[in-house]
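We modelled each protein-ligand pair independently. The example shown here corresponds to the flavin-adenine dinucleotide entry; the chain sequence is given first, followed by the ligand as SMILES.
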Amino acid sequence: MNFTLTPRQQAVRKEFEDFFREEMTKAPPVAGGENIYDNDDAWAFHCDIARKLGQRGWLSLPWPKQYGGQEAPIIEQLLFNEVRSYYRAPGVDVQGIGMLAPTLLVSGNENQKQQHLPPLARGETTWCQGWSEPNAGSDLASLTTKAVRRGEDYIINGQKTWTSGAHRAHWCFMLARTDPNQPRHRGLSFFLLDMKTPGISLRPLKGMDGSHMFNEMFFDDVRVPASNLVGEENRGWYVSLMTMNFERSSVGAMSEARRVVEELVQFCKESMFDGRPLSEDRLVRNLLGQITIEIDVGKALSYRVAALQEKGQENALEAAIAASAAKLYGSELGQRLAYTGCRVMGLYGQVKGGSRWAPLRGYFESAYQQCLGMNIAAGTSEIQRNVIAVRGLDLPREPAPAKN
Ligand SMILES: Cc1cc2nc3c(=O)[nH]c(=O)nc-3n(C[C@H](O)[C@H](O)[C@H](O)COP(=O)(O)OP(=O)(O)OC[C@H]3O[C@@H](n4cnc5c(N)ncnc54)[C@H](O)[C@@H]3O)c2cc1C
């Protein structure tokens, strides 16, 4: 793989950098990641950046022009993701832009594309993902929320959980069971749901740090038009598999990690311990060197996913396995990075953002608490290993029972 950028790509990258460098000088103390859902100032900043990105056409770089896209090469999308993540900038609706839009481009009908893609491209709409249920997470195909056809509508009843950002979202893409008599994954359908529809209610699920990012979502006779079904009835599982691959293939995480390490290195150069800078401590240098290597490995894994996705359907299986590997490695690396930061900073690493004693605006305090969830979101590490074992290595789905 050739990592050198062409002059045009360098120019595009610089444009992204100039934009985010300038905009992030106006950021409130808590600005990025899932924190945007919790904090009103962070949410307002996210929406403002989203609209500015929409005006520049940067939310829809590779999409076809008729849906508000730019038809830019996928590498420009990759560069955008990297630069935005490096600056830890909000402005991109991860569920809507990152997951739903590519799914609709492949599986949506013309009306659905025309209705939903242009507002997403302008940064006007926010989506949430209604998949997990109290008894259906890793084993998503066991979900029980029902959708029953009544004339031109479906009537939905049931419950979702862990729905990130549902309290900020305009729309939800969700899975519901349309045929309880079919084998589990064959009876599911994929719907688009306006969050203002009567019968939807939300209950906040607070994180261990007190933040409100997740929700429980309840459906009580919620009427959704049949025209909001994506793909065919009872074929929603196959639509959702595609969405999952987009969810697992994000390339920005390594770029954010690189920035964090740069800031940590700066902290070590400026902070004294036992009369000398931390950067002269052998253990600290070792930790920083190790994590830097791991970030480079993660970057190569992410680039591989993008390269395979660009080749299209013929590489779909390889891309799916690579996406699982990149997601698994990236989320576990996020955990090691959070531990490294807290270890290097000692007690200062535990001070919350907003305090004058918090280095890096409290990044590691927050990252330490949130990184565990990253190993669970979008499929746990065990599930990613299973995907690699079964689909990548052709190992049996379940281990054979032990013989006596
Ligand atoms: C930060 C975050 C954001 C999220 N956002 C959303 C969202 O917006 N929308 C949404 O629908 N969901 C969301 N989720 C939910 C997430 O998809 C589920 O939590 C996840 O799929 C795991 O399901 P579960 O919590 O039910 O755990 P379980 O599936 O009950 O798993 C429990 C444990 O058992 C292990 N396990 C389960 N099955 C196997 C197996 N076959 N082999 C080996 N080990 C196994 C798991 O790895 C895990 O360690 C989010 C979760 C997090 C943490």
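The radius of gyration is 22 Å.
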